[in-house]
């Protein structure tokens, strides 16, 4: 039997075939490179940045940075972040983070003010406690309760190891150390002589009140090796205190 196809029949066949044909998927070539997957170091650097930013946001609005629950907690968080050992890759990622430099600079200024308040508070506390009664704890025992006392002890070990190669080798040589901006609680001045017995310490600060407070503290601690001096606000000469 002979079959004849006209144009209508052909169109119907093509339509039927199209029903059973898998449609072609359109794959567009991306015009931009997708972001790379963060490495563990990059992810940790970003986490540290967010933590530091959170600390700054909690401290920046405060009218006073004197010791308080919020100030103490925030600074303790910051200290714990700073004393951890970090690899070079993480550090590189951290400093490449957007706005990290102005954030760190702003936080440094806040920490300097808070540290001054903290030192003044503890110097006054130690003096008031030891002068209150004869049975009061010794100044040395009270000093060791300072929250960051252990950190200063550890830091003094590093400082001593850095200084030794540059100091006179003769055991009879007199050593003199000067600390600029020693503040009301000159802890480094107080612990460094444990590494260099007989050394003379000169504390220098532009704040005469803070220096006078540290003079009282060093006398209470029987630290006769310490002396103090302060410079005028106008940058003039250095005058002795005590």
TrEMBL record:
It comes from the Eukaryota. GO terms for biological process: nicotianamine biosynthetic process. Signal peptide: none annotated. The keyword Lipid metabolism does not apply. Pfam families: NAS. GO terms for molecular function: nicotianamine synthase activity. Residues 1-42 are annotated as: Disordered. Transmembrane segments: none annotated. InterPro entries: Nicotian_synth, SAM-dependent_MTases_sf. This is Nicotianamine synthase. It comes from Pseudopithomyces chartarum.
């Amino acid at each position: 039997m002979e079959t004849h196809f006209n144009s209508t029949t052909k169109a119907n066949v093509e339509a039927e075939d199209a029903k059973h044909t898998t449609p072609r998927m359109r794959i567009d070539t991306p015009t931009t490179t997708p972001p790379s997957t963060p490495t563990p170091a990059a992810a940790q650097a970003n986490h540290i940045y967010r933590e530091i930013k959170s600390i700054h946001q909690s401290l920046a609005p405060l009218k006073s940075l004197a010791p308080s629950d919020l100030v103490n907690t925030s600074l303790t968080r910051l200290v714990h972040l700073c004393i951890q050992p970090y690899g070079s890759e993480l550090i590189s990622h951290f400093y490449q983070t957007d706005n990290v430099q102005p954030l760190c600079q702003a936080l440094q200024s806040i920490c300097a003010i808070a540290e001054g308040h903290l030192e003044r508070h503890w110097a006054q506390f130690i003096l008031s406690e030891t002068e209150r009664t004869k049975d009061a704890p010794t100044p040395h025992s009270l000093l060791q309760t300072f929250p960051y006392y252990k950190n200063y002890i550890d830091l003094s070990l590093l400082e001593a190891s850095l200084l030794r190669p540059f100091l006179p080798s003769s055991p009879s040589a007199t050593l003199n150390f000067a600390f600029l901006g020693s503040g009301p609680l000159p802890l480094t001045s107080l612990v460094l002589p444990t590494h260099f017995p007989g050394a003379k310490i000169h504390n220098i600060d532009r704040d005469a009140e803070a220096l006078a407070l540290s003079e009282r503290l060093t006398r209470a601690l029987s630290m006769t090796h310490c002396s103090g001096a302060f410079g005028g606000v106008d940058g003039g000469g250095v005058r002795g205190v005590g």
